[in-house]
Amino acid sequence: MAKTDFHDKPYDAGTLAKLRIFELYAQEWIPVFLSRPNPSFCEVHLFDFFCGPGTDSEGTYGSPLRILDQLRRYNRQGLAGWNKARIVAHLFDEDQRKIKLLRSVLKSKNWNIPGVEPDCRPLTFQNALAEYSSVLSNSRAAKLFIIDQYGVDAVSDDVFSGLISYPTTDFIFFLSSSTLHRFRDHPAIKQKIETVEDSYDVHRVAVDYYRKRIPANNQLYLGSFSIRKRSNIYGLIFGSHHPRGIHKFLQVAWATDGIAGEANFDIDRENIRPEEGILALDMMRPSKIRNFELELERALKSGSMKSESDVVRFCIEAGMICKYSMPVLKKLKDAGIIDIDFRVPDVGRWNSPRPISLIR
User: How much helix, strand and coil, in percent to the nearest 5, is found in the chain?
Assistant: First the structure.
């Protein structure tokens, strides 16, 4: 009996959470390159390497239609740089049946988006990387990769090394539970994992593994999001060479998980509801936020932070969005410990940051 493909039945909650993150990041990513009258990049490429047929059995949008839907939305809004750059949506899958189904969907005039070149073909991940090598190495082309590697481990160590070498490229790739299973032997968690319920930290260790594979001369920022589907833990790994890219991913993550910004379940087992996380009582506030504030306060008091960009870097390396630094900055400014002229650090001022002066 043939194995049932997950596209041939309704998407479950975990898959919907994953697709929502893909969609929200595409929503944040597109205007970065197309909102200005004179775009900085002459080409914008969105790659969905394991696109599938476009919908599940009930017609719920999959990743390719969610990406196209965001492009359609911005076309209708009339972004200032829309017609100033070449925009290509690459929708690939090695399964010819799925591509045939997707092509039939895209024949509808609803998916005829002015200014967007659709590139929908049966193509394997490896062949796609080879065919588009010149685009991938082009620093004047902005690129977003969605690598929803269902049932395979396409992002090997060698492929990861390639991904992080491509200029002006952001990527999100999916790690299946079977792929994450190999991280169970990592020394940091081997003693902790005895049952399925003790596997919450596996994805965090996987991210650390990939971070250690980034060369010292490669300024790449990694983020992650863990997804629980029934008894299994899955994960997303995000990468960007620009602080704005990782900060936008963290904004998506925190919009999805207001407690820790990294999972669709209670990853730290704190039993805090999202509405309780904003309360002032320390016992009702997530430990990740409390610990971040303590560490940030210590760093500021030490005088090691000289500018706004130092705070931005501290935030993103802690997996936090910049707004969470605001209470600490206000507290130390009101106490006369630091002097600053901003309330929340602006990642957009990365190259022209405002100073931080330690008074005492």
Answer: 45, 15, 40
| 303/290 Cα distance (integer angstroms) | 21
Question: Shortest CA distance to 204 belongs to which of 293, 288, 146?
Answer: 288
Q: What angle do CA 337, 251, 317 make, to 5 degrees?
A: 55
Describe the strand order of the beta sheet including 43-48 as a list of residue ranges: 116-122, 86-93, 43-48, 141-147, 169-175, 232-240, 221-229
Burial class (CB in 10 A: 0-12, 13-18, 19+), 308: buried
> What are the φ and ψ backbone dihedral angles of 177, each rounded to 5 degrees?
-65, -35
**Nearest to residue 53, comparing CAs of 3, 12, 107, 91?**
91
Two structure tokens written together for 84: 């100033």
Q: How many Å apart are CA 122 and CA 139, to the nearest integer?
A: 27
Q: Could you tell me which of 27, 36, 15, 3 has the C-alpha nearest to residue 348?
A: 36
> How far is it, in rounded angstroms, from Cα 220 to Cα 256?
23
CA distance 262 to 62: 22
Q: Work out the angle between the directed axes of helices 13-34 and 63-77 (0-180°, nearest 10).
A: 30
Q: Which two tokens stand for residue 155?
A: 């992002």
**Coil/strand/helix, residue 67:** helix
Give the tens place of pLDDT for each residue, 220-274.
999 999 998 877 888 899 999 999 999 999 999 999 999 989 988 887 878 876 5
Distance CA 360, CA 354 (A): 19
Give me the phi and psi of 191, to 5 degrees please.
-75, -20
Q: How far apart are CA 120 and CA 90, in angstroms?
A: 6
Instruction: Answer whether 65's CB lies under 8 Å from 103's CB.
Output: no
pTM (whole model) above 0.85: yes
The Cα-based distances of 130 to 93, 97, 340 in angstroms read: 15, 23, 49
Q: What is the number of alpha carbons within 13 Å of residue 250 lying toward its C-beta?
A: 24
pLDDT tens-place string over residues 8-65? 789 999 999 999 999 999 999 999 999 999 999 999 999 999 999 999 999 999 999 9
